[in-house]
Amino acid sequence: MLYNNNYNTPEAPQNFFLIPLPDSLPATFDEVTETTLNTPGLIKETASTVLNTSFLISSGGTCLAASSSSASSSKKSVCGPKSALTSFLEERGISAQEIRRRHMNQYSRSRGPSSVQQNLAISFDHVNQSSVASNSPQKDDSGSDIKNSVKVRVKKKNSDDTKSDSDGSDNPSSIFCVMCRRPLPNNMLMSDIDPRAPKCSLCWSILSKKMKSRKGGVKRMKNKCIVAGTIRQTTHIPTLQDICVKFIGKNIKNVETFGHIGSKALNIICSCLCKLRLLNEETFRLFVEYPTTSLTLYDCAKLTRENLKSIGWNLPKLVSLTLEECGQLDDEILKSLSNCCPLITRFCLNGAHLVSDEALSSFIASRALTEFEVSYNSNIAERTVRALFKEGNKLSKLCIAKCANIKDYCFSGRLDSSCLSALTYDGLAISSDAYKILNRASSEFYSLKVVNCSPLVENSLPIINKILPKLTSLELDLRIFSSVDKIKAFLNELTESTRLEKLFLYHCAALDDGMLCAILKENAGRLTSLTMSEGTELTVGSLSLLSSCRLLEKLDLSWCGRVNNEIVASVVRKCERLQEVALWGCHRITESLCAYTKGRVDIKGAMFA
Asked: How confident is the model at residue 258 (pLDDT cuts 50, 70, 90)?
């Protein structure tokens, strides 16, 4: 319809307009738009009417046959009220076609002059040269030639052209998708096209689905990991109590009272407040307002003397009391607690450097303690120790740490330790007599911890070796042995222990492969915590046996030079309960191990260059 060689004196059919054009054929979309809009005789309707018009151009540039779709579009020209933004854009002459034209020109310039013909928005389809050459030059009503006519077709914005553009058969000069090499549809907004890497809607949807699946997979694997072919939960899911405690800690200033809550919940709240450094005079009243049998204050640094005295006044039925960082506590306050709280059987003092040996011994003698812990007090000495081990006492757990005046002479004489089942010495200048209480310890003795103490004398070694078969928990600094031979003798005795569940060995440079294999052979099925720091003599062969400890929850291999990624990965893979691994000073550990164990195990101390 647009071109027919049999027209001798063509007449414009319905919806066609005769438009004179200049002699030169426009080469770009800008020139065509400017020429058609400024040419006399053109029915200037709207930009959409011009862009949805097919033109017939003669070689002489005298006329243009245009087929308009205004008739069909006029039927659909029912418009609602215009918004303020639409009115503003129309006043400024901004339209979607203008934006598309600018984007197309920008894209054409970015591709360079060699690809301009492929990126033009207007396609120049040459007429069949053989049919044109066979006919003589013809004249229209105005006498113009149409011998070398070409059809200039502006892309239509309708469904038919969209289909033809999608398969690329009717629009060979469109912008092509970088992924599937198919031309982009003409009705696609240029704001949705990336000039550097244009993609069609199909490729965009496929790419977005892949990205969503990857993100979802990472998110799902944060909560689960595959161990021995099974999926297990690794991240901690907070309980309702944890959520409530966290909320209370952040809003403690708005809390009027805790009410009647359990001692365990109260201790958890106090721990949260102490970590936030919010335990002070105002918040302290919440913990002594209602009667309770257990009170744990992890940080008493901001409490006054009156606050500490009020513990005994308000909580007379206390059974367990723990005071840490209690520098304000003195003999007067301790005496008040002793008089007001006669039922205390578990007492822990940390940092009470003002308390004297006489006052503490009087407090202990007035009651039957079952658990006692004291640390960072240079005043207590022999009187306190003798009060602890008086005849008929029921002391089962004892911990003495960082008390400079506790010497061996404090343990001289006959002391009753028949109920003792757990003992901790930390930072004491003891070597002989202090260990004699183990000879008369309970048959159910299960835990021994000796760290940062003076070296043992000869007669103390048999005492420790004697209780080894009973122990389920042993924490020992091997520097308490004065020679390497004594260390090896002790480790040989340790290989016969068959009940160990927690084993902590520090500075174990004398530990070799044979000893480690013997220890693991007897206790691998029970160990839940294992520490072997500075095991410089351990090789890859013995370290690989750690994966046989299937119940392991915590592992410390700090300063073991031969530990590598494969050993730790094997332990992580086979020990399903493992939660924490300490690798301080292990220079063979690389970042790939942390990537492998991320979300499964907490790796501490791994340093990378």
From this structure: confident
The Cα 578–Cα 268 span in angstroms is 25
Distance CA 375, CA 584 (A): 27
Please give the average per-residue pLDDT across 434-458, as a whole number: 92
Following DSSP, what letter does each residue of 303-317 receive, concatenated?
--HHHHHHHHHH-TT
Give the orientation angle of helix 331-340 with respect to helix 305-314, to 10 degrees: 10
Measured CA to CA, the distance from residue 433 to residue 428 in angstroms comes to 12
Distance in angstroms (rounded) separating the CA atoms of residues 373 and 326? 14
Q: How far apart are CA 246 and CA 269, in angstroms?
A: 8
Q: Quickly state the pLDDT bin for 159 (edges 50, 70, 90).
A: very low
Non-local CB neighbours of 382 within 8 Å, separated by 6+ positions? 357, 409, 410
Helices 513-523 + 484-494 axis angle, to 10 = 20
Confidence class for position 608, pLDDT limits 50, 70, 90: low
**CA gap 575, 585 in Å, rounded:** 23
Using N-to-C axis directions, what is the helix angle for 240-250 and 263-275, rounded to 10°? Answer: 50
Domain ranges of the chain: 16-203, 472-609
- How far is it, in rounded angstroms, from Cα 242 to Cα 371? 28
- pLDDT tens column, 192-205: 666 667 777 777 77
**d(Cα 445, Cα 458) in Å, to the nearest integer?**
23
CA distances from 490 to 476, 482, 511, 515 (A): 11, 12, 10, 10
**Of 435, 438, 403, nearest in space to 420 by CA:** 438
Instruction: Give me the residues paired with residue 503 across strands.
Output: 474, 530
Residue 474 predicted with pLDDT over 90: yes
Rounded mean pLDDT of 179-185? 74
Residue 9 is given by DSSP the state S
Paired sense of beta strands 346-350 and 320-324, if any: parallel
Q: Are 540 and 562 in contact (CB under 8 A)?
A: yes
Superfamily of domain 472-609: Ribonuclease Inhibitor (3.80.10.10)
pLDDT score of 120? 36
pLDDT digits over 541-551, tens only?
A: 999 999 999 99
Residue 465 DSSP symbol: H
Q: Angle CA(324)–CA(326)–CA(330) in degrees, nearest 5? A: 135
